[in-house]
Structure formats: C-alpha cells, structure tokens
Write a structure and sequence with these properties.
Helix content is 38%, strand content 18%. It has helices at 16-19, 41-53, 64-74, 92-102, 117-121, 138-150, and strands at residues 33-37, 57-61, 78-84, 107-112, 130-133.
Length: 151
C-alpha cells in the first residue's frame, strides 16, 4: 500500500528558513520601548507579553486619554506605538495625530478589525507605518512590528 508518509532522509540539510531560529519571527529579539493601546484587555495583554518576550519594554493603555498621558511622559523613549483604531474615547487616527504633535515622525502600527479598503485609501500617504487586521496571528504581528522598526 502506498499510503505511507514521506520519510526523512539523512542526505542534505533542511531548508535554512525551517531550521534557523533567527529566521523564525517568534525568536526575533530586539530592545526599546513600545506603547500598545487597545481597549480589549486580552488583546492588549497578548501583544504586550509577546513583545516583552522579544526583549521590549512595553507600556500599555486601554484608552486614548491614558495613552496620551503615557506618551507625554515618555515620548523620547517610545520607538513606536501600536494602536487600535476603535478606542472608546477617540479613534486611533486622531490619537496618532495628537502624539505626532508632540513628536513628529512617530512610527505607528494600526490594528483594526473594522477598516475597509476605502477607509485606508482615504488616508494621506504615511499616516500609518503599517496596518494589520484583527484577528491576526502572532507571526504576522511580529513580522509587521519588525518591518516597521527595522524599515
């Protein structure tokens, strides 16, 4: 019967991407301070713990007002902000504009489950460093953060 699974052979080496930990986004390591803003405590905690595992210091906020207060105190240390678009007290775009009045050029990743292509097309070029749609996986999230920080 030909239903056996393919067998591994000892000839050759496995593909580099599959075997090298440095190519695995879950093994990426960096440093710095990031601000994560999301009104969903579970999502906020997941992003925060994942980024901490990568070596970052992570500041968190569950609403725009708290995020802006944290940003005012730590603007010089924060490398990037990860913002939920649909915060209860302010949308992520308006919050980012307020933060950029304090520090122009701030890198920002938008996380949202409610934006359409039209919403994104109407934004001026450079509004967001990157956009990631919810729900997202851990690997795409880390790839997005890495691309923004290193790009």
């Amino acid at each position: 019967m030909d239903s056996e699974a393919p067998r591994a052979t000892s000839r050759g080496s496995p593909p580099a991407a599959a075997s090298a930990p440095e190519n695995n986004p879950l093994h990426w390591h960096s440093t710095g301070t990031l601000l994560v803003v999301d009104d969903d405590a579970g999502v906020r905690e997941l992003m925060s713990s994942l980024l901490q595992r990568c070596g970052f210091t992570v500041l968190t906020a569950g609403d725009g007002q708290t995020a802006l207060e944290i940003f005012r105190r730590s603007a010089d240390q924060i490398q990037m902000v990860v913002l939920d678009f649909g915060l209860p007290d302010i949308n992520g775009e308006a919050l980012l504009q307020s933060m950029r009045r304090i520090r122009a050029g701030l890198r920002a990743v938008l996380c949202s489950g409610c934006l359409t292509d039209t919403d994104l097309d109407e934004r001026p070029e450079g509004t967001w460093s990157a956009v990631i749609e919810k729900p997202f996986g851990l690997v795409p999230f880390l790839q997005t953060v890495r691309k923004v920080l290193e790009g």
